[in-house]
Design a protein that fits this description.
The chain has about 140 residues and is of the alpha+beta class. The protein is built from six helices and three strands; from the N terminus they run αβββααααα. The protein folds into two domains: about 70 residues, Hypothetical protein (Metal Transport, Frataxin, Chain A, 2-Layer Sandwich); about 35 residues, no CATH class. The chain is about 45% helix and about 10% strand.
Length: about 140
C-alpha cells in the first residue's frame, strides 16, 4: 500500500477510532476516545473539533506512537480498508532526523516543514547547500 506523506485531518483520526473499535467516552473542549487492548492495556486519545485541520508531522508521529499505538502504514490502511488494526502492531519506523541547523537554514530560505519532512537527512543537507549557493536577491 502506498502510504500518504500528508498528515490526517482530525476527522480522519476520528474515523480511524470508529473503524478500530474505540469507544467515544466524552465531549468537552475535545472529543475523547478509549480502547482496551486484549492485553488489558487501555489506550486513550482525543481529537479536536477543528475536523478539517491537519497537524504537523511530529504531532502525528507522536499520536501514532503514544496514543493510537499503530504504524503510519496501519493507520492509513485502516482508513482505506475500513478494517480494524490487528495488534500487536508492526513497529513504526522512526522518522528521519534532521540536524537542527539544516532545518533552520531551510526554513529561513522558504522551505516548509512538510517539504523538509519528505526529505531524508542527506537530501535536506544537499538542498540547503544548493540554497546557500544561490545568488542573493
Amino acid at each position: 500500500m502506498n502510504v500518504p506523506s500528508r498528515t490526517p485531518t482530525w476527522d480522519e483520526i476520528e474515523q480511524f477510532c470508529a473503524i478500530d473499535g474505540w469507544t467515544h467516552i466524552r465531549s468537552t473542549d475535545h472529543e475523547f476516545w478509549q480502547k482496551t487492548l486484549v492485553s488489558g492495556e487501555v489506550l486513550e486519545t482525543h481529537t479536536s473539533f477543528a475536523a478539517k485541520k491537519t497537524m504537523s508531522q511530529g504531532r502525528f508521529a507522536a499520536i501514532l506512537r503514544n496514543q493510537l499505538k499503530v504504524s503510519r502504514r496501519e493507520f492509513w490502511n485502516a482508513l482505506k480498508t475500513r478494517l480494524p488494526v490487528e495488534r500487536p502492531t508492526e513497529e513504526e519506523e522512526p522518522p528521519p532526523t534532521h540536524d537542527a541547523w539544516v532545518v533552520l537554514g531551510l526554513k529561513e530560505r522558504g522551505v516548509t516543514e512538510e517539504e523538509i519532512a519528505r526529505l531524508n537527512p542527506a537530501e535536506a543537507k544537499k538542498l540547503l547547500h544548493e540554497k546557500w549557493s544561490e545568488p542573493s536577491a
